[in-house]
């Protein structure tokens, strides 16, 4: 599984809740520069997998390696500072802050966070804030959200919130971004825009993505490879056509064998 361009390795990962195995011995790799789709029926263990990779809680057993480093026991915060960032199916915006302020909140270790620095180095704090603001303005322009820069984030549409969530990952030094159902609650027009921005970030800015998604049109357009999970296990990893036509995948989604379906 290891390779020079391998960014993430999941090895024999298990997560149990009581006697229930939400993740049951999963292994897969994510190559740098790819957009990997993670699909499967409801209850397949996809979100639990994301939580494990992001560090929300430790696995029962197994290992997670990121950029060649064992991060199994690292906290979410430490993984974040290594460039491993996730989004959520329901965006976690600061709803009372503006879209611009939401982006400006993201970069860690800003000098203005320290009370002492505001007293002793106001010039440095001001310069740092202007640098962050300029980056946030540029990010909103890239996402075509400049017109809502001063709008409270809580008032944005579902699609605009998903774009803003993507923008928050851009305000970090993200290398690997875990996108949890980016298409959920997004109208078709904004979904096409979201797809376009993900593709540009991958192709032109070097972001690697793993995305959980039920919208197969989006998976087909963006993702290679595709990983299908069912009942906590990885069924298959390959290109979209191979995964879509695999009898195990059809059975997992339809709840019946291909012969029965026919």
Automatic annotation (TrEMBL):
Gene3D superfamilies: P-loop containing nucleotide triphosphate hydrolases. InterPro entries: AAA+_ATPase (IPR003593), ABC_AA/LPS_Transport (IPR051120), ABC_transporter-like_ATP-bd (IPR003439), ABC_transporter-like_CS (IPR017871), BCA_ABC_TP_C (IPR032823), P-loop_NTPase (IPR027417). PROSITE patterns: ABC_TRANSPORTER_1 (PS00211), ABC_TRANSPORTER_2 (PS50893). It holds the Pfam family ABC_tran. The keyword RNA-binding does not apply. SUPFAM superfamilies: P-loop containing nucleoside triphosphate hydrolases. Residues 8-256 form the ABC transporter domain. One of its GO terms (molecular function) is ATP hydrolysis activity. It comes from the Bacteria. PANTHER family: CONSERVED COMPONENT OF ABC TRANSPORTER FOR NATURAL AMINO ACIDS (PTHR45772:SF9), CONSERVED COMPONENT OF ABC TRANSPORTER FOR NATURAL AMINO ACIDS-RELATED (PTHR45772). Belongs to the ABC transporter superfamily. This is Amino acid/amide ABC transporter ATP-binding protein 1, HAAT family. It comes from Stappia indica.
